[in-house]
Design a protein that fits this description.
The protein is mostly helical and 97 residues long. The chain is 73% helix and 0% strand.
Amino acid sequence: MGMLLITAAIIHNLSGYSLGYWSCRLMGLDEEACRTIALEVGMQNCGMASGIAAEMGKISTVGLAPAIFGPMMNITGSTLANWWRRKAYNENSVINN
């Protein structure tokens, strides 16, 4: 079950980054805005989910997903941000140009 949960968290993050980035590109936003929105969409607030699970007294069951998702969100988000930091972009790049 643990590996399935980790796999689901990775797929959720990667699909969020992809959908956020490419939706912005289709709308004609510049590269910097696309990258910013992709990170915002891909990284969700697992802290709130952990807090709700703790408040309900179900941290060992309901809180398992946010406990796995939080570190995975931080790892994938920082990896993508570092990769984009090394990859230069054209400030005037817009999909319609």
